[in-house]
Amino acid sequence: TFLDEDKFNHIAQTMSVGSVWGIGKSSVVDFASKGISTVAQFMDLREGLVQERFSKPHQELWHELHGRSVLNF
């Protein structure tokens, strides 16, 4: 079952960034050092800031969380 955008955004407010596939324990520490503990906080970042401060896999996760596929077929 898919979540609609409003329900997803509500859940993202309290969901730990560490619960996202691809964000492991060491990344959670890095995110916390940048003031990010929830999925919503990560999603609220400007794209340019994400590109400046995060690795490519985390940049891709940011896009995926915004509903943009990063798969290249």
Write up this protein.
The chain is mostly helical and 73 residues long. 53% of the residues lie in helices and 0% in strands. The longest helix is centred in the C-terminal third of the chain and has 10 residues. The radius of gyration is 12 Å and the shape is globular.
Low-confidence stretches: none
Q: Give the rounded overall mean pLDDT.
A: 92
Shape: globular
Q: Biggest β-sheet, characterized?
A: none
The value of Rg in angstroms is 12 Å
Distance between the first and last residues' Cα: 25 Å
Total E-strand runs:
0
Secondary-structure class:
mainly alpha
Tally of separate helices: 5
The helicity comes to: 40-55%
Beta-strand content = under 5%
Strand and helix order: HHHHH
Quick synopsis:
By secondary structure, the protein is an all-alpha fold. The chain has five helices and no strands.
Q: Which properties best describe this structure?
A:
73 residues; mainly alpha; 0% strand
Task: Please describe the topology of this protein.
Elements lengths: L4 H8 L12 H9 L5 H5 L3 H7 L2 H10 L8
